[in-house]
Write a structure and sequence with these properties.
By secondary structure, the chain is an alpha/beta fold. The protein has one domain: Rossmann fold. The protein has helices at about 15-25, 45-55, 75-80, 90-110, 130-135, 145-155; strands at about 5-10, 30-35, 65-70, 85-90, 115-120. The protein has a five-stranded parallel β-sheet, sandwiched between helices. The longest helix has 17 residues, at about 90-110. It is globular and about 50 Å long. The model has no long low-confidence stretch (mean pLDDT about 95). Adenosine-5'-diphosphate binds near residues 8, 87, 90, 127 and 128.
């Protein structure tokens, strides 16, 4: 079974993440989201909430699972017997960091290879911080997040 891990904070999952997940899931037997607990980033949503939103937003993809982790992605990949990590690449500026992470993860777990998937053009400027900022100020984010995430963001910010 070919398994790929999609690591990130996903606070919350947005359409750019979903696009990468949909495409990567067709290339592997199973795609597992590794949701970083990332307490130092002070996430808006708890790991449990982030996983629920991911599972809700990916109902149409049959081969997806999601778990939280506060450890190394390389260890998470080993535990799940994954062959690969998938990461989205938006700008050239993402590349340096992703390159460093990929070489370090390969050093920590030589059985895992990192694949970088170029984001669809319409999501190039999208990230979770922008989504949260726009939602908090009452802007329209319907093109950028799945409907279930929009509902959760409105609840968090007490918007109707
Ligand atoms: P962010 O807070 O920037 O959305 P995450 O840590 O949740 O970032 O990102 C997890 C993975 O998703 C990373 O590989 C990141 O490059 C990728 N990603 C983030 N935003 C996008 C996007 N708009 N299009 C494609 N991939 C993305």
């Amino acid at each position: 079974m070919r398994i790929v891990i999609y690591p990130g904070t996903f606070d919350p999952i947005h359409s750019g993440h979903l696009d990468i997940a949909e495409r990567a899931a067709t290339l592997f037997d199973k795609l597992i989201f590794a949701v970083a607990v990332n307490a130092e980033k002070n996430p808006l949503f708890s790991p449990k909430e982030r996983i629920e939103m991911i599972m809700d937003a990916t109902r149409h993809i049959p081969n997806v699972e999601a778990f939280s982790t506060d450890g190394l992605v390389a260890d998470f990949a080993r535990k799940h017997r994954a062959a690969a990590l998938i990461r989205g690449l938006r700008h050239v500026s993402d590349f340096e960091f992703e390159f460093q992470m990929a070489t370090m993860n390969h050093h920590l777990n030589s059985e895992v290879s990192t694949l970088l998937m170029v984001t669809s053009e319409k999501y190039i400027h999208l990230n979770s911080t922008v989504v949260k900022d726009v939602a908090r100020l009452g802007g329209d984010i319907s093109n950028f997040v799945p409907i279930n995430v929009m509902v959760h963001l409105k609840e968090k910010y007490n918007l109707n």
